[in-house]
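Checked the freezer inventory, then went back to the computational side. Two predictions to log before the end of the day. The first one is the construct we discussed on Monday; recording sequence and tokens without edits.
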Amino acid sequence: MSRKKYVVDLSSEERSELEEFVSKGEHRAEDITRARILLKADDGLTDAEICEHVGCGVGTPHRARKAYTKRGIAAIHRRKPDRDYTPKLDGRGEAHLVALACSEPPEGRTRWTYALLADRLVTLEEIEFDSISEETVRQRLKKRPEATPL
């Protein structure tokens, strides 16, 4: 048998935190499963034994151990906490978008399309964008049904 590349060695604080996390049942099922995997891996069980106890796929324990060695106990959550995302449209840009969607469509058109709105929003001088996707326009207008062009 080969030696595991990613070894889980939980401190007593991490272990108690994971046990509390699992026992509350207030979290997402997949997060609880990852926490249970880490606890079983710390107990020294093999991946196959962990799969039997937890009821997961064969590769899941390996991925959970690998994530734990890279990110620590935060690995029980799938999303990385250091994700850096800033929305392209702020409140001011969204207001321009809604006003544009509620206005008359361009000449020769009967209604606004998401592509037309995106193109027109980029050409406005009040807002400085290099580009904006049709999907961003769709998602923002979805929140405001009165402004949906289609």
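The second is the one RB wanted added to the comparison set:
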Amino acid sequence: MKLICIGRNYAQHISELKNEKPTEPVIFLKPDTAILLKKQPFFIPDFSDEVHHEVEVLVKINRVGKHIDSKFAHKYYEQIGLGIDFTARDLQQKLKEQGLPWEKAKAFDGAAVVGKWVSKSNFDNLNDLPFSLHKNDEIVQSATTSDMLWNIDEIIAYVSQFFTLKIGDIIFTGTPSGVSRVQPNDSLKGFIGDEEFFSIKVK
């Protein structure tokens, strides 16, 4: 399985990092080895002094598809989740300045938190899901999927033009503003609405 991540999908986050607003979704990949093991803490890697949290709504693909029309995209997933795309921001900035790929800053071991999965039928409107990240019991990121530049079905349709989607693939749909550095002993908890989807410690 693969982790397909969408960058720059929330306007305020684009402004926050002083990036240009894209005309189409930005895509990057993480290997399955990036997934943080259940009940394990996140260890800040030695190669970075500035790892940022990026909370994101997740979608798990449940059937094989390619060149999917957005009006049929809803048939390709049944479960919604929440996770974190950890980013070594200092390393990413160096790579960007050199015109190099981001993978070392985005795809390292433990860089992807995948919380619990629930049926999408639990929600009235997937295009207006409120979600948040709490760091040490303080809300640091908060948004709704209505803030996305491209919604879930549009993302699936777009991604499937380039990659065959397979059962078990996970799509990270982008992060809102409020990203910040994590430090040892931080506690991170993610919520969709009032329901907790993950809780991790930083070491």
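For RB: The longest helix spans residues 89-97. The chain has a mean pLDDT of 95. Let me know if you want it refolded.
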